[in-house]
Amino acid sequence: MSWWRSGAVGAAKKQKKFAEDEAVPRKYESVALIIGVTGLVGNSLAEILPLSDTPGGPWKVYGVARRPRPSWNDDYPINYIQCDVLDGEDTQAKLSTLTDITHVFYGTWTNRPTEAENCEANGRMLQNVLDALIPNCPNLKHICLQTGRKHYIGPFEAFGKFETQLETPYSEDMPRLNYINFYYTLEDILCKEVGKKEGLTWSVHRPGTIFGFSPYSMMNLVGTLCAYAAICKHEGMVLRFPGRKEAWDGYFDCSDADLIAEHQIWAAVDPHAKNEAFNVNNGDVFKWKHLWKVLAEEFGVVCGEYEEGQRLTFEELMKDKGGVWDEMVRENGLTTTKLEDVGLWWFADVAMGNKCFLDTMNKSKEHGFLGFRNSKKSFISWIHKVKALPFQGYCQIYPSTCCNLPSTVYLTHLFLLDFGAARCFFAPRIHGVSLINGAPNSRNEREVYASNNRVGYSFSSHGRGSSLKPYLFLCLSLASESQFEAIREKLRLAAWVLGAPSVRLMRHMKAASRNSVD
């Protein structure tokens, strides 16, 4: 029974077993191309598709994105292709040679000043991809297109301008709005091009607000809220709610990025889901006033309430905080970023400025998809993922573990990222030194140790820290390439056994004056 029917949705992901890790190489049954692999859902697809028991597999996976491959995406066993699909020549050159593709997962978009420009640019991107693939992929079976709830409420520029609004909950059979919408453009292009190839099928997926992880996404709400809460923590501020009363008290739904990925995989391989459009959400509802308390607890700040009077906005509250963010990056040794890159205030203002929007999942259920998520747990899990964003080139290991390193390997740097304290500790050349990181008067809560080339840390199960999972980051100085490979595999094994999401090392070869990252 497939994992989207069994009630154990996500169980396959928890096992963390990629097809390539098996002792005996397996023949691929399906070959996926993810367009927008560094986006919220693309990142989840890159993690889930290669799992050994993902339906339709074993899967070989290609991933396409405009920018170079980021460190937070490089653990997934996919073939990464840097390509700007807005450029027709670049798309033809890099995608037309992928003749083994069987399934396409299209989830990218670009933003332009007007919806007319959005229709032109986004339509051209999809057309470029289909022009490169459909004539050159003889085994192409299915194309998944991700759009969204704006199918029912219209583009951002038209919010509140329709005389007749569609009534919630939104269902897939509702008529299109009488306004241009690049989602409509994409659907029309898809249906036209799919009709040119016999046996090729399609599906359209319409999530609402997405809870997921991607520092590159233009609609990364969880990451934006984390940046806001971190600044409040740093400055000792109350976590004020910049939103409307309808958002504070009203019912909303959301779409977990992993669930959307599972929904798309289901539609790609299940014969009952072909040539249909589907809503996709977690299957429950929430109020922002409840999740606001969760956000405050996760960052250890005082939770604010809805404030009567003139509405607060994220853009107003955060307009002069760029210098504060730079200070936080320096003090905590974080990867260098700018606040405008991690805090998408305009989008958060849209999300918190809306009235109640709800979709129905009845059509998906009727066609056989029974997956769901607990939205509160989903919110917490993605907050933890954002907090654990690793520094480029370091190794992360879960609590209560350690590794024995050869005597010729030297630990040069160590970082501990603590969820509770939201701090990062740095210690150069720490052989024989123990670092203690705990709450006041509880120095034994977390212990980091590095002595006799044995590195790791312990984690006691008392107090508030018992529900938190810090990460350890190591930088090792190595003597040879082969030694690096041996250490990497040892740490990878330890991490998989304990359920760690990934292993990263930075290697510095003594024989060469360069750093390289795996």
From TrEMBL:
From the Swiss-Prot or TrEMBL record, give the protein name: 3-oxo-Delta(4,5)-steroid 5-beta-reductase
> Coiled-coil annotation: which residues?
none
GO molecular-function terms, A-Z: oxidoreductase activity, acting on the CH-CH group of donors, NAD or NADP as acceptor
Q: Which UniProt keywords apply?
A: NADP, Oxidoreductase
- The domain of life for this entry's organism is Eukaryota
Give a GO biological-process term.
Answer: isoprenoid metabolic process
> Residues in domain PRISE-like Rossmann-fold?
91-340
Q: Which Gene3D superfamilies match?
A: NAD(P)-binding Rossmann-like Domain
**Classification lineage:** Eukaryota, Viridiplantae, Streptophyta, Embryophyta, Tracheophyta
